[in-house]
Amino acid sequence: MVSPPGRRPGGRWSSRKKIEEGFSLRVAGGGVLWAVGLAALLAVLASGVVYVTSLDERVLSWVVDVGSFAILGLSSFVTARRQAGYGLVYGLAIGGGYALITLLMGALFFRPLPGFGVFLKRLGFSLLAGAIGGILGVNT
Fold it and tell me: Of 7, 28, 50, 58, which sits with the fewest C-beta atoms within 10 Å of its C-beta?
């Protein structure tokens, strides 16, 4: 096999990233960061829509909750599909990481800290969304 100029023999010709074998915390962390970033973007967009229209502000909590569920499912789906395996594990890791990060961000920026029951409900829905997305990502 002839390698391109400037490359070692045995290198890949494709610019596509190599799929990591086994479960990787780095990959799961990337999925969590994507989920948090997309959720922040959704919150900013929803706030802007409420600001410029006559919609009630109570709509924001529903939009953020439903949007977070969808975003977690999408992030888990994409991560598991890219890795071609460990869908349930990646989904649960992304969902749990998302729930913890949103709890910490909420504790830092918005007082008072939510109750334990509220956190458990958020954690449950986050794990469920992540698990569904991860399983679908591997099986499609």
Answer: 58
Q: How many CA atoms lie within 13 A of 125 on its CB side?
A: 14
Query: Up-side HSE of residue 38: CA atoms within 13 Å toward CB?
Result: 19
Could you give the 3-state DSSP secondary structure of residue 128?
helix
Before 112, cis peptide (omega within 30)? yes
Distance CA 123, CA 77 (A): 18
The whole-model pTM stands at 0.79
Tell me how crowded residue 101 is: count the other CB atoms within 10 A of its CB: 15
Q: Greater confidence, 112 or 124? A: 124
